[in-house]
Amino acid sequence: MTEGIAQTIARRIRAEGPLSVAAYMAMALHDPLGGYYARRDPIGVAGDFTTAPEISQIFGELIGLWCAELWQRVGRPDPVILAELGPGRGVLSSDLLRAAATAPGFRRVLRLHLVESSPILRAEQEKRLGQAQPVWLPSFEDLPDGPLLLVANEFLDALPIRQFVRGEVHWSERMVALDPGDPSGDRLAFVTGPESPAATLLAPVGLRRSAPGTIAEICPAGLALAGALGARLARQPGAALFIDYGYFPSAPGPTVRAVQGHRPVPPLAGPGAADLSAHVDFAAFAEAARVGGAETHGPMSQGRFLAALGAEARLAALSARATPMQRRALEGGLKRLLDPDAMGDLFKVMALVSPGLPQPAGFEANVEP
Description:
Blueprint: H1 3-16, E1 19-20, H2 21-30, H3 36-39, H4 52-55, H5 57-73, E2 80-85, H6 91-100, H7 106-109, E3 110-115, H8 119-129, E4 135-137, E5 148-153, E6 162-166, E7 171-178, E8 188-192, H9 197-202, E9 215-218, H10 220-235, E10 238-247, E11 257-260, E12 263-265, E13 275-277, E14 280-281, H11 282-292, E15 295-301, H12 302-308, H13 311-319, H14 324-338, H15 340-344, E16 347-353
Parallel strand pairs: 2-3, 2-5, 3-4, 5-10, 10-14
Antiparallel strand pairs: 1-7, 6-7, 6-9, 7-8, 10-16, 11-12, 11-13, 15-16
Helix pairs in contact: 5-6, 10-11, 13-14
């Protein structure tokens, strides 16, 4: 029953006034009692969505080889921190570590760190990754110093975003309020706050001259992460790989969506019962990382990136040892990851690296803007 978190949100609005979209998303997703991630395992057929590692083992294996190649480029440090942000059920790290074992010396030096807020998903990760002796942390800032290889698949899209609306003179913030037409008094609705110079300063610079009524989004938590990671990579050797759905360059339009049972639902209809996410502004994320001190590569499409890393060759190797049923599953899974009409173009890949490092593997195939 999700009534508890809905009532908590309604009570907060009555006490404090309308909430920013970011505040609403944070409560609906991460409230320790009624939040979405506190109450369920959302991934897989029985959940609300399926991620690339769950679709094909090739995804995590190729990323493991990508990490091994980066480790060699930075001088084979011992030890090296391998961090995953939002590890889900631990499938990506499990496949990554299996592939890492094929690179001489690499698996031995890895120290696995998982940034995870969900107690339910932590339990799943422990079942799958316990032998790797992972260290769980609540945030990126808690990672220890040292050479770093960081991976984040579908992490940025779950960070809370703020929305702004272009008015006649200034911008205003789009908020979440109680619907005055609802007899129960608990139904939520989007409202537009007053225009102000302050809201205009928060709107993306490149979109400030948009037509009245235009909606633009920013992700403060994502920009803060990019800046902090950029500063770390400027001080210590390493690289980070982000895979997510999003857009490049920056563009207007609301992208917040809710998914329940693999189907879209209204974002405000059932707080705590549906996954909430928003498309990633890769241009803004890259700029924040560069300001922090990192160099950036991409974004490029997931399909092109995985193909450049040898996805088809890995499929052939696995298929040679597979039963006909397994072969069909392997082929279908990889097709879904590569196909431009499935996940291949929607999902983008971006790397952040320490200044002076060579171009990471896969990005030499990037011919996109």
